[in-house]
Every structure is written in C-alpha cells, then in structure tokens.
Amino acid sequence: MPKGLSMVAADQLWKAYVVSEDNSKDAWTNKWNWILEEYEKLHQQLTEVSAKADNIPKKAPDQRSLKPFPNSVNHEYGWISAKPDFRLEKYGPDIMQAMPLPKSD
Q1: Taking the alpha carbons of 11, 14, 19, 20 in that order, is the dihedral positive or negative?
Q2: Nearest by Cα to 37 from 25, 29, 27, 48
Q3: Which tens digit of pLDDT belongs to each residue from 65-90?
Q4: What is the C-alpha to C-alpha distance for residues 72 and 69, in angstroms, rounded to an integer?
Q5: Three-state DSSP class for 1?
Q6: Cα-only R_g, the chain
Q7: Predicted local distance difference test score (pLDDT) of residue 79
C-alpha cells in the first residue's frame, strides 16, 4: 500500500484498476476481434493447401529412444548426451572453417 493512503482509498484504487482492465479487454475485443477471425480463416486455408500439396516433404517420425533409463540419475548427470543420437555436435566440434588467406606474390 502506498504511503499516505488509507485502506479504503487503496481498495477504491484497486477496484478502479480492475474495472479499467475489464473495460480495456472489452474495448480490445470490440475493436480488434475481426483480426482473430481473419487469422483463423488464413490458418484454415493454409492447412487445406498444405494437405493438398505433394511437394512438401513429410517429416519422418522420431525413431530415437531414451530407454533404458538409469536406475538413479543422481550420479549420472548427462546420460542422454552419452547416446550418439542425442549429441548436439553431429558433425564435429567445428564445422565452420575460415577461408584461407590469399597467397601474396
């Protein structure tokens, strides 16, 4: 509670804040709800187009497995990264090599 305000005044300020929040929500809905409907229409159209498209590659299901789980993970921190399928560095520690400098004559 701010200094110098009574409990009644602080309560009235809080009630006014809550009422203004509700009014703002209603005002936004009245003014901008049409854009949510447009986004829903666009989403439906894109879903229909992507369902009909033949050239979009389908993602294969993930065949990796986390099993077998260790009996206790307290002493095995990072046990998932020990599996080669779950390593972040798939291609080695540094795949980006700087281009060589031009040879001076």
Answers
A1: positive
A2: 29
A3: 877 777 765 656 677 777 888 877 76
A4: 8
A5: coil
A6: 29
A7: 75
